[in-house]
Amino acid sequence: MEPRIQYARTADGVSIAFWEVGEGPPLVWMPFPLFTDIRMEWDWPTARRAYEGLAARRRLIRYDSRGSGLSDREVADFSLEAHVLDLQAVVGKLRLERTALVAPGDAGPIAVSYAARNPERITRLVLWASYARGGFGDLAEIQAMHALMERDWQLFTETMARTAAGWSNPELGGWFSQLLARCTTPEAMKAHWNASYDFDVTDLLPRVLCPTLVIHPNEVRYADLSQARLLASQILDARLTVLEGLLGPPQFDEGGATLALVDEFLSEGEEAAPQPLPSGMTAILFADIADSTGLTERLGDAAFREKARALDGALRDVIRENGGTPVEGKLLGDGVLAVFTSARQAIAAALACGAAGASAGMPLHLGLHAGDVIREEDPDGRGNVYGGAVNIAARISALSAPGEVLVSDTLRGLARTSAGVSFEDRGERELKGVGEPVRVLAVVASPNQQTSRPANQGE
Fold this sequence. Notes:
Helix 5 (139-151) packs across helix 6 (153-164), helix 6 (153-164) crosses helix 7 (170-183) and helix 12 packs antiparallel against helix 13 (343-359).
C-alpha cells in the first residue's frame, strides 16, 4: 500500500511533501536535493523493499526537497539555510523530539548543519557519499555538465543516471533517468548546483555529537575520499567505511550490502535495553537545568518544555553510552539522575552531559557523589533509587556553576587517576540535610574531553 503523502510548510513558505511508514524510533531519510520524487521511488521494487525493511522496526520518514518531486517547484532559494528549513519543517510537523538521519550526497552538509545546531535532537547520523565543503568537484566536469543540462535535459538525466551514479543495471539506470527527468527542472537544478558550491560546514563538524557513520564509495565523482576522511576525522564520534566501486544510494542497492551497513549502524543505538538499577555502593550523577525559571520566561513555557524534553533524551543517551543507567522515576524539577558502577565513567558522562547542555543552550548544574543507594519502584511502576547519597549528589549539583561538574571527595577518591582529569579543591561545604560538611572539588577536563563519548569500559 502506497504511503499517504502529507505536507509541511517551511518558515519561508515552501510546501514540503513527505510520507511516513512504520512504528518505533524515528528515522528521517533525507533526499539527495532535487533528485527525488517520493511517490515514484515507492513504485521501484528495490527502493520499496528497502524502505519496508527499515520500517519493520522504525518510524521511517522520507521527504522531497524544495524544487523537486511533490514539493513546491516554484522556489528561488536553494541555499544551505533554505534546505535546512525543509528538514526543520518535517521534523516540526511530526513533532519529532529525537530522530536519526540518513543523508546522501548534498544532503550531508544540510544534516551536519542541523545536527550541529540541535545536538540534543539527533540520535545517529549516516552520511553517504557526502562532503563538508564544495558541491561538485572538478571545474571542467562541472562546466561540461552545465552545458549538457542546458542543451539537452533528457540526455543530461540519462548521463547522470547511467554514468555519474555508476549503475551497471540498464533497467535501473533507465528508470532512474526517468525519475531525474520528472523530479525537477533544468532551471531549479542549475540554481541548486550553483548554491551548493558555497556549502561549507567544516567549522560545524566538531559540534556534531551523535554517533556518525560515513560511507564512501571510492569511485564517486562529485566527492572524493579526502572529503569522507575530513568528515570522519572532524566529527568526534564518527567511523568511516570505504566501499569499492561506484555505487548508488543504499535504497537502490539491489545487493543490499550498503543498506545492511546502514541498518546495522542504526540498530546499535536502538537495541540497547535499559539495565536494572543497582543497589548498594554506586556512583551517582545528578544533572539539572540551570536557571530553568529564567529560561522559561525567555523562551515561553511551550518552547522551554520542548527543548527540555529533547535535552532529557540526549542526556539519557549520553549516560547510557558512558556505561550508566538513567533513573526513570519521577524527580523534582528538570533533573536527570543516573547511577554508575564506575566513578571514571560517571565523570566522563557528566562532562559529556555538560557539553550537550551547552550546545542546546540550556547549561546544566552537575554533581557527583558515591555511596549506598536503595532501589525501589515508584507507584507508577518505574524504577527509582533513594538514600542519603542521592540527596548529597543533588545538593552538590546545586552548588555548581552552570556547566561546571562538582564531585565529592568520596567520588574523587574512587576515581583516583583513572578519570584522566584533574580536580580543583573547593573546600568543605555545608549541605542542607547533611550532618557533616562535605569536601567538594571541581573537575578540570582536558580540552577535548567534554565532548567526547568514551566506550563503555569498566575501571
